[in-house]
Specification:
The protein is built from six helices and two strands. It is mainly alpha-helical. The chain has a two-stranded antiparallel sheet. A hairpin with a 2-residue loop joins strand 1 and strand 2. Helix 2 runs antiparallel to helix 3. It is flat, with a radius of gyration of 19 Å.
Length: 191
């Protein structure tokens, strides 16, 4: 999300509270890595010509099970996510892999799927919780006693989500740049 700009729709529109971010996180954990691994396995069995259909089809079939698992965990609360829950089926985080010309090895699919899932879950939870704190001075529905008012009610809206994500991305990229500069300076000193 932060480095490639993928996965924005559920993050900006649906992850307005910690609870919504948690529901999306569970969906991503149950969908992203299994889709990648199953698609890698299926691409070994046949031609790798229709990669987009393979990834979207795999994701669609797996989504059916994921939906029922989410419904059993969160009941009717998943309706708050609207169309953004089924949109995960065609989310670039999940189907981006089909653009590469060679099939992905199953072990690599598993490793990269887990890393991508964890990264996206961290960003989802960070953004959902930050937006809820800023927009309603609460976290997972419980009011924060130290906050007398909501400092940024706009954070609950998509525009606020874009602004907050922009700030988080700028801080993250700045930290990455500073770290790389530090490592480069340490390497120069070592020579």
């Amino acid at each position: 999300v932060i480095m490639q700009g993928m996965g924005l729709a559920p993050l900006i529109i649906a992850a307005t509270t910690g609870r919504n971010a948690l529901m999306l996180s569970v969906a991503v954990l149950l969908l992203l890595t299994p889709t990648r691994v199953v698609a890698a396995l299926l691409s070994r069995k046949g031609q790798y010509k229709f990669r987009a259909l393979l990834y979207c089809g795999t994701s669609s079939v797996l989504y059916i099970g994921v939906y029922f698992i989410l419904k059993s965990i969160f009941d009717v609360e998943i309706l708050q996510l609207g169309v953004y829950l089924p949109l995960l089926v065609v989310e670039p985080l999940i189907i981006k892999r089909y653009e590469r010309p060679q099939p992905e090895k199953i072990v690599v699919a598993l490793r990269k799927g887990v890393r991508t899932s964890i990264g996206y879950v961290v960003v989802l939870m960070l953004m959902g919780c930050l937006r809820e704190i800023l927009a309603s001075a609460s976290l997972f529905g419980a009011p924060i006693k130290q906050m007398a008012f909501a400092p940024l009610p706009l954070a609950n809206l998509p525009a606020g989500g874009f602004i907050l994500l922009g700030v988080v991305c700028a801080l993250w990229r700045g930290a990455v740049k500073a770290y790389k500069k530090h490592v480069h300076m340490e390497a120069k000193r070592g020579l």
